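User: I'll paste a sequence; please echo it back and then give the predicted structure.

Assistant: Echoing your sequence first, then the prediction.
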Amino acid sequence: ERNFDIFFFSPLNFISTQNKIRGYQWKNQKWELTNQEIPMIIYDRAFSTDKNKTTQIQKCRKALLENNRHFLNPHLLTLLLNNKVALHHWLLQKKIPTLKTYPFTNSFFENIDDDSKYYIKPVFGSRGSGIYVVQNIDNQFYLYNNLGKKSKYKDVYDIYNELSQYVNPEKYFIQEAANIHNYNNAPFDIRVIVQNKGEKYQISGMAARIGQIKSMTSNLNAGGRALPLDMMNDFFMNNYQKNARQIEKELTDLCLACSHQFDKDYGAFAEIGYDILYTKDQGAIILEGNAKPSRWLFNVIADYMESINESPKEYLELRKLTVKMPLVYTQYLINNKEISL
């Protein structure tokens, strides 16, 4: 096997005049700060909500692409995954189960039927922030934020006009609500991490994320918690007449099928974190795909296992495995001469 060095850097430290980057390299049993040539293989996890920092990140990313650096997740695939509207159109085109999406327009609000429910979400949103829900109950209209706070309106246009004052309709879209069972009065979804060993894609881990009671999202950053699927076996049996193992197989088949289609359209990738809803009418459907999936989920489960006097070892090891896999994939690319250093 050919060895390779690992170099951590921020795009904010890109020295464009020298085509070099300031970052950290492991030397002499410690991380040393150094200036380096642009690495040949890039695992791009950069993200910022700050406009100026985003501009700098894009500038660095552009330079990396122009210098023919290899991105472990292809750049065009990452762009698709980051754009929720484009992703849902792609999923529908490929006949992969998902939810319909609509543009955020005044005319859409004219046609909100009785007893209907829709999510209003940012196109480039992250971590469950900036999400609203509109619901029509007996021709009374309600607007919820992502923590479940509710406001009542007589006219749906009042909701549109209010939202339009503090969100940009061009940067938001509307998505129909899925037909799902809540878990103990809380929404849940399932995170599935698909990773590439080089020879094939594999499911490295999956677990349920459960939101706060009566909240609108299951995001961990909004106070949610996490559980292994086998701990939800009774819930699945009572509500879906399937056990956790059957649910896990459906999720595995769906995510691997989607991954192979991504590979076909965009090329091989290192990893994707899928957010899956398990619905009453369609079974497992893909809600989102994440090019920079977090592993925090497994730490949350490990903490929970400790709190009930169970061993957290399995989930701490799972986090280590999912962190390690992009390096395993990098080693595969080098050993098989698909990338030259």
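The radius of gyration is 22 Å. The CA atoms of residues 104 and 173 lie 5 Å apart.
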